[in-house]
Amino acid sequence: MWIILVGLTGLWVLAIMPFPDAMTGKAIRDLFIQYSGIIGIGVMSIAMVLALRPVWLEPMLGGLDKSYRLHKWLGVIGLGAAVFHWIAAKAPHWLSSLGLIEGGRGRGHGDGANSASDSLNQVQAFFDGLHGPAKFIGEWAFYGLVLLIALSLIKRFPYRIFAKTHTIIAVVYLILVFHTVVLLDFASWTQPLGIVMGMLLLAGVVSAILVLTRQVGKRRKVEGTIEEQHYFPKMKVLETLILLKVGWKGHKSGQFAFVTFDSKEGQHPYTIASDWDENNPRIMFITKALGDYTNHLPEKLNIGDKAIVEGPYGCFTFDDTAKRQIWIGGGIGITPFIARMKHLAHNRVSQPIDLFHCTTELEPDALKKLTADAAAANVNLHVIIDSRDGQLTGEKLRTIVPDWKSASVWFCGPVGFGKALHKDFLKNGLPTKNFHQELFDMR
Which positions ≥6 away from 2 have C-beta within 8 Å? Predict the structure, then answer.
């Protein structure tokens, strides 16, 4: 994220050099408008590309979960830049209406960089003629952007509403691209800033079109049928086994997929809880009642129902060269470790592994299954029930696993719990690269 911000800032500074001789209020305002516009549309373009779930970027970013985190914060920064851009453009009108400055039409948006005395070619004259419409629709697109990003950040809105309204941002983005192309200082297009912005806008436009035409993940979708279900009522956890049709290219344990059980509800992300065997094309998901949709899954899903599975995604795949591994699954975060244990049992991989399952409650049937999986995979299982054992801390874990410094730590669970353990381990000497955390938060 910082590379993106510093890079765009450097290109903008290079484009406006030298700074105006007289740093008047208008000159400073124009600089603010230009800079906020470049940052805003630049980060939104990259966020739009990330919305495609590009698998080729996952190794670089650490998985789709990290890619979505970057997407989210680029959106937040884009919104902040857009608000600043709007205030800078509107400020003279507000001040004039209050009688604090003389009325007048500010140019802004960098259109004052080339004065009227410059000879304008036909292309520049054409763009100059579109300044009025570009400003008008850009302002209304800004209002839409504020509303849509607010809906995506306020988690009290149901996921299905978020997913549907979030797609509309692609339309708003296309309007803002027109706003940018028309109002960016014409001379900038021949400079490094203009070349980079042109590539970002082109990539963003293509991405927006793919989003609006529902092409995202289309080639990675496979139909399936619900074959088995097992519900644990006290834990509010549902196991769903799906028989997949031809087309699934396989997955690694620890990866996840987007699953659609109801076209009206749309797709939801779930970690895959099974190993892959092409001769037995079945895939299992374990879901917990954590929201308005998952609360009703047990009563909505039936054996024989159709499902669409898209994936796999993610890099939480247990690949490293550490002598041993420590797994920590908080609540439903146990899911990727179940998949990994099934993989180890099928492939007879030998590596010292300690699994800590931290939970508020564990039904006997669930404990029986977990114990059997651990035994088959030769994994040392430690069940930590909060009311009985207290919360797992780094100190407790290090006592149980004295050889922890030679291990890599893999965590999946509540974000706050993971941050506390991460901080503790790093403070006590664990290298940063040896702590892996799945950020399973898709909004």
Answer: none
